[in-house]
Write a structure and sequence with these properties.
512 residues; mainly beta; 5-stranded mixed β-sheet
Length: 512
């Protein structure tokens, strides 16, 4: 008899217990009390010459049978107890792990077997996910909201009210106290604040003298219903559009090379103020902006000239009165510390890890790397991206000492203290604490899979016969659990709403 139980979804691993007959001859010289033959003795009636045959004669009760029955019963009880104990332990372990993975961003529904196509929808790319809806950019502009589990269309906005292509993106409706780009960047995470779909026309490449009739249109759309909240239009070619300090700021370039600023209240759509720079800011040969930055309630734009505008009053201020500040500041809370990285406008930067009292623990070689899907890295390991070369480093959080590094690599996901990293040609599972490679597989460099996992397997694309296929690899050892029967025919797979979505440039395909 065999008993078998599984310890992982979709995997045939388990424990086999086989109960075999045990011939106990008892103490030397002992015999059954009735003097009859023992069951299954070779050469006895039943199956002549084969162990295990049963005699046709009766066997009365006696000490031998009692001892054998007791041993059989005890063995069976021990095996059954072992099965129960193991099942209980595994159930508790799985429940604890499920609780730890609950709420992990990017996690999809269990994938124990090959995925099947559920829906298709025309579209260029996924704009993002808001309130459980997948927003898809239209091929000709506009945006559509889909249910990622069924592909059903919840609403669609065509973009007809916005001059230009009607490109759409998700913007955070920032708290009025947030006045810097770094605040907006840090706040742009799921479940923080409320969001709005911001759709605009295409931006300008150059400013020409006969572009007096150019304009920039922006529409804010409710992500829950698709209803237009309000539409604005500003003269000039688009330089920048952002939601900051509770307002929509539209910056445009005018034909005379001056810059125009206009603000609308996000909650009401009412105009707050408008300002045109007193002097030309842009070069004669086109739009050249060396600096576009918000510092202490002030928006600064620098080209051949510099202009600074107070976001609170809409008045032009002296640029020299605005203190120097990093272009973007990223702060990452850690276990008993904080990592800070300051970007400059040219992409360079510097950073440090500080203690709760503000003292510097160590300097950083690059910004902290936050994978798209993670259940939280090991408490004593910090992953950072190299400033130059695109490499990856793991640092000891206590000292800053380098534990290991990978050239030309990016973190795809972190689960159970294992980082899955990609260099474009291979996908590897690396132990966080020491960098040891747990497993590694070659992948299709033309097909990007952005950390799609259910906590047990991770999806990857492999190339076979010139065709790319989706495969599910066990996180624990890289074993291929399944592969799709048909080629996907796309170039990127991502997770939205707990489901796998593949894009191929003209449509999105939902799998489950």
């Amino acid at each position: 008899m065999r008993r078998r139980w599984s310890s992982g979804a979709g995997r045939p691993d388990g424990v086999e217990v086989e109960l075999v007959e045990w011939h106990d001859d008892g103490p030397e010289g002992s015999e059954p009390s009735d003097g009859g033959p023992r069951p299954g003795a070779p050469g006895e009636p039943g199956e002549p010459g084969e162990p295990g045959g049963l005699t046709t004669g009766s066997v009365g009760p006696g000490p031998w049978r009692g001892r054998r029955a007791v041993r059989w019963g005890a063995g069976l009880a021990a095996v059954l107890l072992l099965v129960v104990v193991v099942n209980v332990v595994e159930a508790r372990r799985d429940a604890a792990r499920a609780a730890a993975l609950e709420g992990v961003r990017g996690l999809v529904a269990p994938m124990p077997e090959p995925l099947t196509e559920i829906w298709r929808h025309p579209g260029s790319w996924p704009v993002g996910e808001v309130d459980g809806l997948l927003l898809v950019a239209g091929v000709e502009g506009g945006v559509t909201a889909l249910d990622p589990s069924t592909g059903d269309v919840r609403w669609s906005w065509t973009g007809t009210s916005v001059p230009g292509a009607g490109w759409c993106g998700i913007e955070l409706l920032a708290d009025p106290s947030w006045t810097t780009l770094s605040d907006l960047y840090l706040a742009s995470v799921p479940d923080v604040g409320s969001s709005v779909v911001l759709c605009r026309g295409s931006g300008a490449e150059t400013v020409v003298d006969d572009a007096a009739d150019a304009s920039t249109g922006v529409t804010l759309v409710d992500p829950a219903t698709g209803a237009e909240l309000f539409t604005v239009e500003a003269p000039g070619e688009q330089l920048g559009i952002q939601v900051v300090a509770g307002g929509l700021i539209v910056t445009t370039a005018l034909p005379d090379r001056r810059v125009r600023f206009e603000r609308w209240d996000v909650s009401t759509g009412e105009p707050s103020w408008a300002l045109t720079s007193a002097q030309p800011v842009l070069g004669e040969d086109g739009v050249v902006v060396e600096r576009y930055q918000v510092v202490q309630d002030t928006l600064i734009i620098a080209g051949e000239g510099t202009v600074a505008v107070s976001l609170a009053t809409g008045q032009e201020v002296d640029p020299a009165s605005v203190p120097d500040a990093p272009y973007l500041v990223l702060e990452t809370p850690l276990d008993g510390a904080t990592a800070t990285w300051e970007f400059e406008s040219d992409g360079s930067g510097s950073g440090r890890v500080t203690n709760p009292d503000g003292t510097v623990r160590f300097d950083l070689p690059g910004p902290v790397w936050t994978p798209p899907t993670a259940d939280g890295p090991a408490a004593d390991v910090l992953l950072v991206a190299e400033q130059v070369g695109g490499g990856l480093r793991a640092l000891d959080l206590s000292t800053g000492a380098e534990l290991w590094s990978r050239p030309q690599a990016m973190v795809v996901l972190v689960v159970d203290d294992v980082a899955v990293v990609s260099d474009g040609l291979t996908l590897s599972a690396v132990r966080l604490t020491d960098g040891e490679t747990v497993w590694e597989v070659a992948v299709d460099p033309q097909f990007q899979v952005t950390g799609v996992t259910d906590g047990d397997v991770v999806l990857a694309a492999v190339l076979e016969g010139g065709v790319s296929h989706l495969v599910a690899l066990a996180l624990v050892d890289g074993e291929e659990i399944w592969r799709s029967d048909l080629a996907v025919g796309g170039y990127q797979a991502s997770a939205f709403g707990g489901h796998v979505v593949v894009q191929n440039g003209s449509e999105l395909i939902g799998y489950g």
